[in-house]
Backbone:
């Protein structure tokens, strides 16, 4: 086996591996909003975040516009505080917008849904570091069942 | 009687620890020291061919079949819950996180690891290593080091190829045969697979496994009793020890990466 | 080929320096044991510069071990081994590797690298230790192969060589870097009479032509007696007899005489250590 042939075959091997990695990186994995894109940050406080996790998607009408960057607990009021990272592409949400924790399907993972509010002269557009005031907490199945049982009596 | 048992256990422990020590010294001798590019590069290339390229076929074929089987099995379960849209993530995550690195490591231990053990054991038995040493050429640098690095480089590449081929195999069965929606297969996969959490962790696993398999294979060859029986035993030991070590480390790594 | 005289010349200068001690290898009070098994007990031995020194002895007394001790692959338990006046066991790794460039060893099996052709095998030490251009390496290799009569076999793989040819190829490799000392481990074992004759002739010829020092370990009495300048007979952890072949033939030790004449029974008993035969038979009855 000549050195030249070995060089070519090893080169092919590496090329195939790089190709396979590109398939994994681009077609299989979700590379969007991996933290590297140009984003801005908003905050939102909830009473209960349910099963929301860091890196859960943020959607507007089903379109992913960002990801949950972090969840921490406010030390004064003990309410969960969620940091949202939203793509710069979507930087015109008015302050009247609301955030909801939604569930995909009955048992699926939870995500954040933003419902854009109305705009007039008195309404500001949300900027980097602003807080979204209007939030609705996660639907917790146990509480729902409890309410259902309670109401029936 | 008890004393004798105790004695034997002690001797076995000391034997094992001494073996570990020799293995450590071998690895240190092989990978520490300034590498010479002029001499090292052709040797590494040759070993990349022997260890990597020659393992490619078995990796591709196994990857394809494992992906197909995963899709078939997954589909029959998922369809009961009407969740066949989740077939993509099921196949992709199983392959990326577990099957890709682990099965590649097991196949690699059987294909390349055992061959390396036998090769080095035979070189020892025919006094080639000794004569190299007498020619003032360090066999650890000349023989062990290029094989070690070739393995550590090849295995993650093979695991990546295995995983990609497996996912395509899953597509073949799930989409082309069982009729899962193609768009759903890929989009559900993309929604659930994360580049860092899943892809990179899988590759890290594979690098760790490569280190383990190559270390065991080379040490067993280098430490083999230089007879035909000793070499055949060393070859068997390579496959058994490397496979068990890979599975044990897989548990530890999984607990560290995905458990918390 | 202006290289050869130059090489011989440099060797000559080396010899001048070393005339202080005529011994290239000097083993002093050396003991070595493997596990609990004592192999050498305070043994003394010297190898004279420029001579063929043979070490003979029954099999299983660790003659190969002795060569490995001289080569620094094993370390003695006590005592010292001097190579050109410098202690082999006390050398650090890089000094040892430097020293090994001046010695070489011909292994019993030849130990050719099985994945390289004969040419590459002979070129191996030159490529490893020098930065000579490939054209010069080719000249050197062909010279060495010519010396052992295998110039035509340069493109064969070791697996295609007969045992005798493999040993000659290995000899070409051993002299590739013009060592000062060459150690032969059982060079005659398992050879047919013709290749044995070739090896005998080569050892003598190389010794005379290149001015190197040879150590031959063997138990083939006739061949050794025909080429050696000085012979050691080693048995029972010691040197039991030494001298020129002539002196040895006159040696008074019964063990030496038994070994030289190849008698089945004598000072070395035919029977492995055992209980008396009659007793053991009686027990079975």
Residues:
């Amino acid at each position: 086996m000549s050195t030249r042939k070995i060089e070519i075959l090893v080169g092919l091997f590496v090329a195939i591996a790089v190709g396979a990695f590109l398939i994994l990186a681009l077609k299989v994995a979700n590379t969007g909003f991996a933290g590297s894109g140009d984003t801005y940050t908003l905050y939102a406080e909830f009473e209960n975040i349910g099963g929301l996790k860091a890196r859960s998607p943020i959607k507007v009408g089903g379109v992913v516009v960002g990801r949950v960057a972090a969840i921490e607990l406010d030390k004064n009021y003990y309410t969960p505080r969620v940091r949202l990272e939203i793509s710069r592409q979507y930087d015109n949400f008015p302050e009247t917008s609301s955030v909801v924790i939604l569930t995909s399907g009955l048992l699926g993972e939870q995500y954040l849904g933003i419902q854009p509010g109305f705009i007039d002269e008195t309404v500001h557009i949300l900027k980097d570091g602003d807080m979204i005031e209007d939030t609705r907490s996660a639907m917790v199945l146990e509480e729902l069942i409890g309410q259902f049982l309670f109401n029936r009596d | 009687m008890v004393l004798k048992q105790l004695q034997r256990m002690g001797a076995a422990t000391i034997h094992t620890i001494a073996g570990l020590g020799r293995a450590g010294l071998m690895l240190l001798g092989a990978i520490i020291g300034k590498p010479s590019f002029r001499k090292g590069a052709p040797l590494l290339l040759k070993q990349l061919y022997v260890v990597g390229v020659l393992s490619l076929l078995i990796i591709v074929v196994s990857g394809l079949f494992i992906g197909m089987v995963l899709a078939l099995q997954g589909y029959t379960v998922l369809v009961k819950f009407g969740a066949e849209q989740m077939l993509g993530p099921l196949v992709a995550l199983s392959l990326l996180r577990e099957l890709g690195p682990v099965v590649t490591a097991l196949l690699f231990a059987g294909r390349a690891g055992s061959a390396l053990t036998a090769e080095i054991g035979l070189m020892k038995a025919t006094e080639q290593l000794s004569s190299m040493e007498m020619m003032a050429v360090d066999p650890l640098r000349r023989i062990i080091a290029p094989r070690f690095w070739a393995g550590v480089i090849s295995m993650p590449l093979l695991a990546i190829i295995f995983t990609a081929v497996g996912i395509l195999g899953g597509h073949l069965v799930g989409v082309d045969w069982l009729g899962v929606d193609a768009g759903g297969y890929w989009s559900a996969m993309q929604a659930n697979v994360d580049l860092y959490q899943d892809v990179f962790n899988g590759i890290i696993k594979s690098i760790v496994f490569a280190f383990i398999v190559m270390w065991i294979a080379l040490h067993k060859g280098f430490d083999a009793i230089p007879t035909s029986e000793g070499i055949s035993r060393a070859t068997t030991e390579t496959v058994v020890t490397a496979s068990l070590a890979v599975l044990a480390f897989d548990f530890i790594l999984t607990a560290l990466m995905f458990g918390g | 080929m202006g290289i050869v005289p130059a090489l011989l010349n440099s060797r000559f200068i080396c010899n001048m320096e070393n005339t202080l001690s005529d011994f290239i290898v000097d083993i002093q009070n050396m003991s070595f044991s493997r596990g609990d098994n004592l192999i050498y007990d305070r043994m003394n031995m010297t190898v004279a510069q420029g001579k063929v020194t043979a070490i003979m002895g029954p099999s299983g007394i660790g003659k190969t071990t002795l060569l490995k001790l001289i080569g620094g692959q094993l370390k003695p338990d006590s005592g010292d081994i001097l190579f050109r006046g410098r202690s082999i066991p006390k050398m650090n790794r890089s000094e040892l590797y430097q020293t090994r460039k001046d010695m070489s060893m011909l292994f019993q099996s030849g130990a050719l690298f099985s994945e390289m052709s004969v040419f590459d095998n002979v070129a191996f030490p030159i490529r490893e230790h020098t930065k000579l251009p490939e054209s010069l390496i080719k000249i050197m290799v062909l010279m060495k192969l010519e010396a052992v009569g295998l110039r035509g076999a340069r493109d064969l793989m070791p697996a295609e060589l007969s045992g005798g040819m493999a040993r000659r190829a290995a000899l070409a490799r051993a002299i590739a870097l013009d060592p000062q000392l060459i150690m032969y481990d059982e060079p005659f074992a398992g050879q047919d009479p013709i290749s044995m004759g070739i090896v005998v002739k080569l050892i003598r010829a190389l010794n005379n032509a290149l001015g190197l020092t040879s150590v031959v370990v063997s138990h083939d009495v006739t061949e050794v007696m025909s080429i050696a300048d000085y012979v050691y007979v080693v048995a029972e952890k010691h040197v039991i007899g030494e001298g020129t072949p002539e002196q040895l033939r006159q040696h008074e030790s019964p063990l030496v005489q038994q070994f030289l004449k190849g008698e089945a029974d004598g000072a070395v008993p035919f029977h492995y250590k055992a209980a008396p035969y009659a007793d053991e038979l009686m027990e079975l009855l």
Q: What stands out?
A: The mean pLDDT of chain B is 90.
